[in-house]
Each structure stands twice: as structure tokens, then as C-alpha cells.
Design goal:
Number of helices: 5
Number of strands: 7
Shape: elongated
Distance between the termini: 74 Å
Strand content: 15-25%
Radius of gyration: 23 Å
Strand order of the largest sheet: 5-4-3-6-7
Structural class: alpha/beta
Largest sheet: 5 strands, mixed
Order of helices and strands: HEEEHEHEHEEH
């Protein structure tokens, strides 16, 4: 076999391997699409953050628009803590969803905690017309809440125990987080 025939054979082996991997990649993508269609939205990174059943790491917050928020003094059917960052593009679509929920559900206290400078956080409140309490936090605060993912949410019991938690990117995942939190609260 001469050099030309050997290189031709190697070329066909490479083409065959690439074809195999492209087909496998397509099958995996199709499998994931079917799985999502069959099961609907899922909670992401549930194992991350403060463990379920444990009391939330912080009980008192200084909001820039509603004063001091003390979870031990608020009578609510639960708490939603949304952790976002001003630099997070995936957080921006969540603000209207949270605001809408806050306006329609007074029985669950929603608190938005945002990584950013106070002036920028206030600007964000005006930009998205937020009426919920908004707390500027630092990355060090995020470590105390045992997460670095955005947008991350905790659903807490009336005693501020973690019932459920997840990354939340859209309204379906938000609804699922609420549903699972309410089920855990009644269990």
C-alpha cells in the first residue's frame, strides 16, 4: 500500500468517526428535548445552597426601599428569597415575574437580594418598577447563603426553614418552585 492509499484510508476513517459522533450528538439532543417535553420544567441545582430543613442563614435584612426586614417578626405563610446580580442577563426576565407575584400574593413575603452597589440597585428598582423589598448584597453575602449561582431562589417556611430551592430562569420554573415549596410546607 503506498502513501496515497494510506492517507485516503485515514481520511475515510476520520470521516466515519466524525459522522458517528455527529449522529450521537443529534440523538442526545433529541433525547433531551423529548425528556423535557415528557417531564416539563425541572428544578435545577436543588442540591446546591443551604440544606433543606435548615433555617436560612440570615434573618434580618436592610432593604433600600422598605427599611429593615426581619423574618422573625413578619407574619407570613412563607418567604421567597430571590438572589440575583445586576450583571446577570438571565436575571432580568425574572424581575417582572417576581413583581407580578409580589403584587398578587401578600401572604408570602418576597425579598429580592441583588449583588451590586446600592446606587445601581436603586436604579434597577426604578427601571423594573419593583415594589418588593430589595436588598443590596455582596459576593461575601452570597457565600453565607451558600450559592454563587444566579438567579437562585429559596422558598422558606414561616419559621424561615428552607423548603425548596433552585435556579429559576422562567415562569414555569418559578411556578414549580412554588408548588414544591407549598407541598413541602403541608407535609
Amino acid at each position: 500500500m503506498n502513501l496515497f492509499n494510506l492517507s485516503y484510508l485515514v481520511l475515510w476513517v476520520i470521516v466515519a468517526l466524525q459522522s458517528y459522533f455527529i449522529i450521537q450528538l443529534g440523538r442526545n439532543k433529541l433525547y433531551m428535548q423529548n425528556r423535557e417535553a415528557d417531564h416539563g420544567p425541572t428544578l435545577l441545582k436543588e442540591e446546591h445552597g443551604i440544606p433543606k430543613g435548615q433555617v436560612f442563614s440570615k434573618q434580618q435584612f436592610q432593604s433600600v426601599n422598605k427599611g429593615i426586614i426581619d423574618l422573625t417578626k413578619i407574619r407570613a405563610n412563607g418567604f421567597l428569597i430571590a438572589l440575583t446580580s445586576l450583571g446577570c442577563d438571565q436575571c432580568k426576565p425574572l424581575y417582572p415575574i417576581l413583581e407580578n407575584y409580589h403584587r398578587q400574593n401578600a401572604d408570602i413575603q418576597l425579598i429580592l437580594m441583588t449583588v451590586g452597589l446600592e446606587e445601581e440597585v436603586i436604579s434597577n428598582i426604578h427601571k423594573f418598577q419593583l415594589t418588593m423589598p430589595v436588598v443590596p448584597i455582596t459576593t461575601a453575602d452570597m457565600k453565607a447563603m451558600q450559592t454563587g449561582y444566579f438567579p437562585f431562589m429559596y422558598y422558606l417556611s414561616p419559621r424561615a426553614e428552607v423548603l425548596t430551592k433552585s435556579l429559576v430562569f422562567d415562569e414555569e420554573q418559578f411556578a414549580l418552585l412554588l408548588e414544591r415549596g407549598m407541598m413541602a410546607k403541608t407535609a
